[in-house]
Amino acid sequence: SVQLEMKALWDEFNQLGTEMIVTKAGRRMFPTFQVKIFGMDPMADYMLLMDFVPVDDKRYRQVTNTQPVPRYAFHSSSWLVAGKADPATPGRVHYHPDSPAKGAQWMKQIVSFDKLKLTNNLLDDNGHIILNSMHRYQPRFHVVYVDPRKDSEKYAEENFKTFVFEETRFTAVTAYQNHRITQLKIASNPFAKGFRDCDPEDWPRNHRPGALPLMSAFARSRNPVSSPAHQ
Amino acid sequence: SVQLEMKALWDEFNQLGTEMIVTKAGRRMFPTFQVKIFGMDPMADYMLLMDFVPVDDKRYRQVTNTQPVPRYAFHSSSWLVAGKADPATPGRVHYHPDSPAKGAQWMKQIVSFDKLKLTNNLLDDNGHIILNSMHRYQPRFHVVYVDPRKDSEKYAEENFKTFVFEETRFTAVTAYQNHRITQLKIASNPFAKGFRDCDPEDWPRNHRPGALPLMSAFARSRNPVSSPAHQ
DNA sequence: TTCTTGTCACCTAGGTGTTAATAT
DNA sequence: ATATTAACACCTAGGTGACAAGAA
């Protein structure tokens, strides 16, 4: 079985509609997809990998709310379906760089896919995951048992297991569309600290009950709670 | 067979008497020990590791030349034997973090031991290599074939091979003793660029034949030449 | 006197969103 | 209009030798 790490943070993003930047050179995901694994055979070899499947066959489009809104308005924009999805290229997979490794090694610490990068460059030759901007994707996590038997191909079907966490769904974008997503990224990603206007360490102490809860996930995620995988 | 990378740079350091800093927290080696490997079974698993053996049973001592020397003197100090070596602690080994891996993976690119760190802390619990300051050491590189047979222990003797490059010998120190070593480190280690007083990129062009050859190894090492292993 | 330790400025290396310019 | 790109300032993370202070 598998537990998603930083579930509280993923939930907060998912509630707003998670967006992930794609660039030509490749961009990491934030939050990073990381899991805790249980129940492997400690002595057996496993390959760990991820892929990304379209959530639907729609292409999205950002529509700006042009009506006058109060300052600090919450819903200045939203997603609209803009047509049928672009034809999917044969989806790439990302093997965790430690693969293959023994079950004992995978289980003894959190497995982090922080080397995984997303790109919109169809001609990418860095092995990055290729996605279409303005499309929605569902990350999937696969565990493959390395079968020592000679005719292991025959058992391929029973030698892997797939885990899907719906809270990790996201829209691929080349620039953030929802400003609240931007703010949550800035508040929770250490590499974006330069864009913060207050010290996040002070937030839990200074937090007023009525304030915008942009930082709540970050505060909570310091003691991450995991969730069981869907299927 | 194994080829040492950056051999020209190692030679230049070795000619001056290589020194490596050891610290409580652990310090990387420079030059980094890296090799190119040939002749493995592409499909077989191998473990790669390093250890460090005392070159002799001597403790060293730096003696300062107190006689008046001309400016820019070349030999202001030297090493003297200072007594018998301190009792050796059971030597640690450093497994290359990618171990175990297939021969094909080890051979397809340079294997770099840049995660290896040296410490003088006898109580170190970070898994770093523990060395005595003011003692000389010979790095050794070991290739271990992971024998798939059940009684593999019986074949341990024939399942590993050791490679020794004498030009990688060094003296462990807590502070540099030979100023020319310091200068060569500053000239060739990118992380010490802050202490340079000229642009190393310009050196090959501006190099006057009569000038001090401090940068020559760095200039040459841009097209690294390898050397065969001793044994 | 000699050796060791801890702090520091200054780097490498690379992950952020911003912004202005460009493409569609 | 909307979407994409490239350069950029500002971070994280961590590897340098210098230096002053301390230890042996």
TrEMBL record, chains A, B:
Keywords on record: Developmental protein, DNA-binding, Nucleus, Transcription, Transcription regulation
GO cellular component entries: chromatin; nucleus
Keyword Transcription regulation appears in the UniProt entry: yes
Full protein stretch here: 18 to 248 of 399
UniProt GO BP: anatomical structure morphogenesis; cell fate specification; positive regulation of DNA-templated transcription
Main localization (coarse): nucleus
Entry's Gene Ontology molecular function annotations: DNA-binding transcription factor activity, RNA polymerase II-specific; RNA polymerase II cis-regulatory region sequence-specific DNA binding
Organism: Ptilorrhoa leucosticta
T-box domain span: 4-197
Protein name stated in the entry: TBX1 factor
